[in-house]
């Protein structure tokens, strides 16, 4: 990894949606799920509005010194009964712009999410990554995450 890039992390805004979707689509798995177009499908903006209104969800972006979006993630705070009524944090959709990878941006984003979850009273932070994303798995293990569950999904 090269020297860490200095970033700012802030709540995502509506005008960030095209950049976020672009990063979500920028790999083989994402390119099969996302629809990039000009204009971007309204479903993305509708989803952004739902996420933005939910107090338990934080969609954030990392910006460089020029204010350009270079990364993103979503942190979900989930209250629950398990573990004596503890809340847990779920980190999702961690992405760094392809031209900015290996500069410490993803690490800064994930560390921010962990600290934010802890500050909100979570006793556990978890995330999922696709079984084919071996580099991502190594990255998360380097940050202290341990393999613990078998994830299962149903797509509709």
Please provide a written account of the structure.
The chain has 156 residues and is α+β, with helices and mostly antiparallel strands. The protein has one domain: Aminopeptidase (3-Layer(aba) Sandwich). Helices cover 35% and strands 24% of the residues. The protein contains six helices and five strands; from the N terminus they run βαααββαβαβα. The chain has helices at 17-24, 28-33, 42-53, 82-85, 105-119, 134-142; strands at 8-11, 57-63, 69-78, 87-96, 122-127. Strands 1-2-3-4-5 form a five-stranded mixed beta sheet, sandwiched between helices. Strand 4, helix 5 and strand 5 form a beta-alpha-beta unit. The chain is globular and about 45 Å long. 19% of the residues are buried.
Mean pLDDT: 94
CATH topology, by name, is Aminopeptidase
Write down the Rg.
Answer: 16 Å
CATH architecture, by name, is: 3-Layer(aba) Sandwich
Text of the CATH class: Alpha Beta
* Fraction in helix: 25-40%
- Arrangement of strands in the largest sheet: 1-2-3-4-5
State the gist of this model:
With 156 residues, the chain is of the alpha+beta class. It is built from six helices and five strands.
List the helices and strands and how they pair.
Layout: E1 8-11, H1 17-24, H2 28-33, H3 42-53, E2 57-63, E3 69-78, H4 82-85, E4 87-96, H5 105-119, E5 122-127, H6 134-142
Parallel strand pairs: 4-5
Antiparallel strand pairs: 1-2, 2-3, 3-4
Question: What descriptive keywords fit this protein?
Answer:
single chain; 156 residues; alpha+beta; Aminopeptidase; five-stranded mixed β-sheet; 24% strand
């Amino acid at each position: 990894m090269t020297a860490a890039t200095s970033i700012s992390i802030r709540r995502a805004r509506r005008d960030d949606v095209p950049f976020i979707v672009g990063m979500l689509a920028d790999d083989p798995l994402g390119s099969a799920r996302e629809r990039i177009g000009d204009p971007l499908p309204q479903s993305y903006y509708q989803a952004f509005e739902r996420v933005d209104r939910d107090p338990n969800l934080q969609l954030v972006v990392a910006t460089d010194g020029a204010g350009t979006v270079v990364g993103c993630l979503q942190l979900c705070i989930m209250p629950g009964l398990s573990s004596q009524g503890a809340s847990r944090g779920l980190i999702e959709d961690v992405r760094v712009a392809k031209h900015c990878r290996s500069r410490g941006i993803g690490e800064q984003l994930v560390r921010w999410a962990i600290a934010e979850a802890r500050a909100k009273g979570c006793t556990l932070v978890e995330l999922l990554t696709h079984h084919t994303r071996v580099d991502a798995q190594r990255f998360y293990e380097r940050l202290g995450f341990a393999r613990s569950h078998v994830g299962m999904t149903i797509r509709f």
